Amino acid sequence: MISVYLPGASWIHRIPVRLKLLTLAVISMAILPVHDPAVLGAVLAGVLVLYATLGPEGLKQVTLLKPLVSLLLIIFLLHGIGGSWMEGLVAVLRLVAMVLLANLVSVTTRMDDMLEAVMSLFYPLKVFGVSPKKPALAVTLVIRFAPVLLSVYSSLAEAYRARTGKRGSWRLIAPFALQALRLSENVAEALTARGGAEGLAVETTANTAERRRMLKRNL
Amino acid sequence: MFGVNKRATGTGRPKGLKGDMAFWTPHRMRRDEEQRFDPALADFAVFEGAGLTLGGREVLKDISLSLSERRIGIVGLNGSGKSSLVRLLNGLHLPGCGSVRIFGAETAAVRAQLPRHVGFVFQNPDHQAIFPTVEEEIAFGLTQLGADKQAAREGAADFLKRHHCQPLAKKPFAELSEGQKQLICILAVLVMQPELLVLDEPMASLDGLAARRIQQKLKSLDQKIVLISHDLQVFDGFDRVIWLEDGRVRMDGVPGDVLPAYVTDLDRRAGAATDEVDL
């Protein structure tokens, strides 16, 4: 469900990332105690209007809900069978509104802005000697590699279907986990090869001044 | 698996160190004073009896090499130690015995700083890109060097323009073709201005056209290059080729000597294989 950044200069793009994240948190918490489907429907309609203001490309992002349809259906059925259908409708409306709103933030925010904003949340960790850049980068990697992991799962499911004629099953969980672990190792190695999470800004050798001059010249 | 860095440990404290300087250990002094990169050195990489064991298997054995040529190719069968050898160049692996020096500095002592001097491009571009869009991916290299966000963005845009990749700047990395992905991975490394570029089978997943364009791009670069490939045509114009077999250097010389011998050996092995699973 996590979409990639949609380049643009819309009014939502121009909102500071911290304000976007704060608004997302406030709205998400505000609709949690709401049980009126009319109110939740209105919130959802409002979110869709926000997507519409991004243009056709923005509206296209809504179709990314498709992978969630089966999950939403299960939630609706569970509520309907165990409680009431109205509760199921409320739960689904609330979830869809929250997911779309969170997605709106991710499609209108550059990852480096997001990284900076998330990093500030982890500044208190400095007290314990933990660099805030590491957990912030981890958040970035989760967002970046969610589609890659989905693609890994699709490939496995395709291979399974080619040999069995059936759709993906629980048997794919183990190979998927193994491939995900291998992927994480490869990504960690690639990150290390580029200076690691901490970067290369601190250097103890005499080359520092020379490199800084080179960097300045390059920029 | 990590070897003791004998060169980085001195034999005694220098005379005359008093007061504030008293915390200096011989090890630290030699790191600061001797383990400096000198990109002007003719031999940019020197292996002295380097060995490496991974997962209980000896993947490199007693490698002694001096690399000075601008374009060096590495060939060998899968499992011959090619990837392990080039990973010693940028500190992804450290030698278990012997030593590896890059631009005069021992990798074990300067491991954290090696990515500044040795850029590394992997086989699969999807495993390398950290940011979702091209411009952010390039900018990441600059922030790694200490540039602030705005300077990195401007620097990335300028860098992409200079490399005629401006139209890709705002594109999501996932939507690029395989060739474009690999090109961006190479640029993401180049933006950090390494003196040496190491590429581990960068053309393995590319079609013929994309592979040739990447090859042309590599030819145009000023950096020294060490390249692993199974496609021997990419070594056209190279100065030297090293053939690895079972973790050792089987042959080392100009491509005109090494590549024909390597091909002959491949033909001989293919002809001699009697078992169908001998692949």
TrEMBL record, chain A:
<keyword id="KW-0812">Transmembrane</keyword>
<dbReference type="GO" id="GO:0005886">
    <property type="term" value="C:plasma membrane"/>
</dbReference>
<feature type="transmembrane region" description="Helical">
    <location>
        <begin position="64"/>
        <end position="82"/>
    </location>
</feature>
<dbReference type="InterPro" id="IPR003339">
    <property type="entry name" value="ABC/ECF_trnsptr_transmembrane"/>
</dbReference>
<keyword id="KW-0472">Membrane</keyword>
<comment type="similarity">
    <text>Belongs to the CbiQ family.</text>
</comment>
<keyword id="KW-1133">Transmembrane helix</keyword>
<protein>
    <submittedName>
        <fullName>Energy-coupling factor transporter transmembrane protein EcfT</fullName>
    </submittedName>
</protein>
<feature type="transmembrane region" description="Helical">
    <location>
        <begin position="21"/>
        <end position="52"/>
    </location>
</feature>
<feature type="transmembrane region" description="Helical">
    <location>
        <begin position="136"/>
        <end position="157"/>
    </location>
</feature>
<feature type="transmembrane region" description="Helical">
    <location>
        <begin position="89"/>
        <end position="109"/>
    </location>
</feature>
<dbReference type="Pfam" id="PF02361">
    <property type="entry name" value="CbiQ"/>
</dbReference>
